[in-house]
Specification:
Elements: H1 2-20, H2 27-53, H3 61-74, H4 83-105, H5 110-129, E1 140-141, E2 147-150, E3 153-157, H6 161-184, H7 186-203, H8 208-234, E4 236-237, H9 244-257, H10 262-279, H11 282-285, H12 292-306, H13 314-327
Antiparallel strand pairs: 1-4, 2-3
Helix pairs in contact: 2-6, 2-8, 2-9, 2-10, 3-4, 3-5, 3-8, 4-8, 6-7, 6-8, 7-8, 9-10, 10-12
Length: about 325
């Protein structure tokens, strides 16, 4: 019964509570929750690479931005576009870019892989920043949120705030379920093996390059989905979505929450975004709030230093400390 509660009832309860939050919170907090959910999905996509496969990428924001631009450019300027075809096309464009760049990036390892992924992401950034595609450095607006429709039958109208909120929540939930099932599959076991010892996996007859490339492409598609939701949320995209700072931000979410656990990506996202909101609050910090980067950076340094396994590893860290204290001579 305990296992059933943990694996089914509690997640269901969390889903229901999250779904009901907009009914009791203000528009500001509802928008903040939507932002957290979108970035949680983005962080989950990177967790597949960093925590589950051992591929530390500094170019993951490229897929986030490419899909955001794609869905915006494909949308009619003053009409609602049809996500029924725009969603797979926009995600597909990001995955094609991942196939091309991943096939080259994955031939390198370690710090070289990090630098190559960063280089490819910056290439995408400058394509949109220095050309007229998507409005150049000024970006481009998505005036009307797209919708799901078949002919004249509207299946899902995302222009409704609560419908959009629920759509983001469902996307996040399905992404979590998909990645959880993926990591329990033979494919996921192979990725774990690559993370632990890639050389031994190759010796066992596994094509590690193929597994890593597939994981890279899947992660890009999920990152692209997050980008589409972000574009629909704000109605505006610009090249900064693909900048290295965006890749660094989502990587920090994964590290802060804890690598290797899906829940770590979500916990890290919640913590980081809430810290940003707190340190930017003039109600709490007054005029010093304009220097929020300083306090935010110090808080991140302290958290990472005190919790090397991330926030998800804090309970285990506390248990180990208690066992150490109980077994020490001073305790007797």
């Amino acid at each position: 019964m305990h296992s059933s509660i943990r694996n089914f009832i509690l997640p269901l309860l969390l889903f229901v509570v999250t779904a009901l939050l907009p009914l009791v919170t203000s528009e500001y907090y509802t928008a903040l929750i939507v932002k957290i959910m979108i970035y949680s999905l983005f962080a989950l996509s990177l967790q597949l690479l960093v925590g589950c496969t051992g591929l530390i990428s500094l170019g993951h924001a490229a897929f986030f931005g490419i899909s955001a631009y794609a869905v915006t450019l494909l949308s009619p300027q003053y009409e609602s576009g049809n996500l029924l075809w725009m969603l797979p096309v926009s995600i597909g464009i990001a995955m094609v870019y991942a196939l091309i760049t991943g096939a080259l990036s994955l031939r390198t390892k370690g710090v070289y892989f990090i630098m190559v992924t960063l280089a490819f992401a910056q290439m995408a950034y400058y394509v949109f920043h220095d050309t007229k595609i998507g409005g150049g450095s000024d970006g481009i607006y998505l005036y009307v949120r797209p919708e799901f429709r078949i002919g004249d039958w509207v299946i899902l109208n995302l222009d409704n705030a609560y419908v959009f909120y629920m759509f983001v929540l469902v996307c996040l939930t399905l992404t979590w379920v998909f990645l959880a099932m993926l990591m329990r599959s033979r494919f996921g076991a192979a990725l774990t093996g690559i993370l632990v010892n890639e050389q031994r996996m190759r010796a066992a007859g596994f094509s590690t390059f193929g597994y890593k490339l597939t994981a890279y492409i899947i992660a890009s598609g999920l990152g692209g989905l997050a980008g589409i939701l972000y574009a629909a949320k704000d109605g505006y995209v610009n090249p900064e979505l693909m900048n290295w700072e965006q890749s660094g931000l989502v990587l920090l979410m994964v590290i802060l929450g804890g690598m290797g656990r899906l829940s770590g990506a979500v916990i890290g996202t919640i913590t980081l975004i809430l810290l940003q909101e707190i340190f930017q609050s003039q109600a709490l910090f007054g005029e010093f709030a304009v220097h929020w980067h300083l306090t935010f950076g110090l808080a991140i340094i302290i958290l990472v230093a005190l919790m090397p396994k991330g926030l998800i590893g804090l309970p285990e860290q506390l248990r180990a400390r208690r066992r150490s204290s109980a077994g020490s001579p001073a305790a007797h």
